[in-house]
Specification:
The chain is α/β, with parallel strands linked by helices. The protein contains 15 helices and 12 strands. The strands form 2 sheets. Strands 2-1-3-4-5-6 form a 6-stranded parallel β-sheet. The longest helix is centred in the first third of the chain and has 18 residues, at about 55-70.
Length: about 350
Amino acid sequence: MKILFLVPYPVGKAPSQRFRFEQYFDLLTAAGYQYQVESFISSTTWEILYKQGYHFRKALGILAGFGRRITLLPAVRDFDYVFVHREASPIGPPIFEWIIAKVLNKKVVYDFDDAIWIPNTSKANRLVAGVKWHHKVGSICQWAYKVSCGNDYLRSYAQQFNSNAVVSPTTIDTVSLHNQVRDQQRSGKLIIGWTGTHSTLKYLHQVVPILVKLEQEVAFEFHVISNQPPDLPLRSLIYIPWRKETEIADLLTFHIGLMPLEDDPWAKGKCAFKALQYMALGIPALVSPVGMNTEVVNSGLNGYVCATPEEWETAIRTLLQNENLRTLLGKAARKTVEQHYSVTANRRTFLTLFT
């Protein structure tokens, strides 16, 4: 069996790709599948995609992506399955998906891990927001052979169009990547941490007043790992540019990991990825009760679900002051990921997408 992966970004660059399907490539090979990956955005365009300016080069990169998709169409006949992550092209109607499913009669496995049918405009994508064609998601779901959704909320949407929609959670490779556990006994300053991209930095603002207050009472550092520096009024703030090479080592410095979210339709589609990253490394996660977070975090057992500013403050303060509790929650968090949200645990679900 041969699988063609149509994806937005180059391999190894985007978290949604790395943790939803790229880490299963070796398992596909071991199961007898052959695969080919074709990204819409080239590595050159990726380097400037989220930087200010470069409008002409970005436009050329988008046009080149359409060119690659068009020239690829004749080769699609050679594949048994076509796995589309999010969309075959970032703007415009789902022409490629329609041709592949309806003209070439290929089995399309459609995968998404966000509520991408809802417009979510940011500074980075506002220039193309008007031509994103968000409503194409329902059409692609309808044409797909199977729909792979990151959580139940996303599956509920997909099932309006396709009864063959399944939950395939975003998972962690606990064997080859997140294969270490945070040593809570390490000396040094306590570190509260957050990791994410520029598009989710906005969610940190709700915890800033709490951290400002705690700064007056407890010595800690607040580490933010991201592709862009945050603008936050915190003297404890330390910005760490995200790098794949140091990703795990940087996360392992955390004693506590934060995942605040706003309770809106877009955030309901979130798949608790930040929390899963922390938990896989034995770091207690503090999360908002939004999206998949309440499925992953069991308050008081492997982390804390914080619905109010008072709950955020109490949870952070408690964990800063109690090393043994951090250790106990961290061990339970690691076990949760291994049993339910690891590549090993989800292997069968992923492979059955291609049966």
